[in-house]
Amino acid sequence: MTGNPPPAEPRQRAVERLFSPVRIGKLALSNRLVVAPMTRVSATVDGRATEGMASYYRSFAEGGFGLIVTEGIYTDKVFSQGYQYQPGLADAEQVEAWRQVVSTVHDAGGRIVAQLMHAGGLAQGNIHRDHTIGPSALRPKGEQMAFYRGNGPYRIPRAMSEADIGEAVAGFASAAALAGEAGFDGVEIHGANGYLLDQFLTEGINLRQDRYGGSIAGRLQLLVEVSEAVRSAVGADHVVGLRISQAKVNDFLHKRIGGGREAEAMFGALGTLPLDYIHTTEFEAWRPAFGDDGPSLAALARTHARLPVLANGSLHDPQRAAAMIEGDEADFVSLGRGALTHADWPKRAREGLALEPFDKRILSPIADLANADRSRSALLDIAS
Ligand SMILES: Cc1cc2nc3c(=O)[nH]c(=O)nc-3n(C[C@H](O)[C@H](O)[C@H](O)COP(=O)(O)O)c2cc1C
Prior knowledge:
The chain has one domain (21-353): Aldolase class I (TIM Barrel, Alpha-Beta Barrel), CATH 3.20.20. Helices cover 36% and strands 14% of the residues. The protein has twelve helices and twelve strands. It has helices spanning 8-15, 51-62, 92-107, 162-182, 196-201, 216-234, 259-270, 297-305, 318-326, 337-341, 345-351, 369-383; strands spanning 22-24, 27-29, 33-35, 67-74, 112-117, 133-134, 158-159, 186-190, 239-245, 277-281, 309-312, 332-335. Helix 2 links the parallel strand 3 and strand 4 (67-74). Helix 3 (92-107) crosses helix 4 (162-182), helix 4 (162-182) packs parallel to helix 6 (216-234) and helix 6 (216-234) runs parallel beside helix 7 (259-270). It is globular. The model has no long low-confidence stretch (mean pLDDT 96). The structure holds flavin mononucleotide. Residues 36-39, 71-72, 115, 190, 192-193, 243, 281, 312-315, 335-338, 363, 367 line the site of flavin mononucleotide.
């Protein structure tokens, strides 16, 4: 082996692996490239998606992504909303607004699933309730996120009663049914990044002593109930996925305390649920999930859940993305910041065109679409 990069031709051939058509459940996709879910706090104050959001999502379909996962959408009008200007799927007006987005994406040949999210103790901007709930009454680590219009410490959530848990499960189920009405191709349950379902999964955050806490089976119980309720709500023909992470938006370096053994048990149990895929996210998807050696989180999910896996995390280099497929670690790759930089990343990668690094100003000071437009035109002014 020399240290030289492979010649352009074989490199492009490797990238072609990203472009083979494939199915998730009953949904046929033109390639293995997925837009990762990204909260953009750009809906109306009462949670309706806008025309600007429709063009934003359409641009990814036009740019060649096989599948788009929406930003996290709140599921009920009680405790699920996390952020001001977050869209919801909890009433007829919100469904109608999403219908416009979905048909715009479908018209451009895209496929789109709705990410269903309950913020739990990390809710920092909920127009429906002035307090938060979670598995246990513990103040979340860290500070509310400024780029989603929050500041200061998180509130201490009220520990959820069985009735609260029932209401949260019903919210996921009803939002999933409404996603079907809006025309979505499926839903992704947000079980990652420190939000409600991840709070229940995580030792040290879930201190419950009832059947929703304790062992890994207890901590998984809510996810099991939500997955089953969502599947019953959407039926067999729609895709149902689940997102899982170690890191949390308020604790970026978090690792699961139980390590590989817990991950194995967790993914094994998730593999028995009525799910069509698991979407794993790590800072760098290809790194060992635990310690310096061993499989990535995506590979652990694929091996133990035996479901199709979407891998996410710093995969904006086409070679790196293709290597996840080539190495049988994942079936799909999803891009967050890479897709924000280039909505046409798939076309560019396929043609071997230049890909720019992500510019933080797209999301700063506020992570909404208006800020992104302003920062893009400022950059164009500088360039011209
Ligand atoms: C502005 C922004 C908003 C995000 N919102 C969500 C979200 O709503 N749901 C979610 O599961 N992940 C969310 N994420 C995480 C991304 O889906 C993805 O995991 C992260 O950007 C790392 O992938 P990347 O390296 O391709 O950017 C968000 C990321 C960004 C940058």
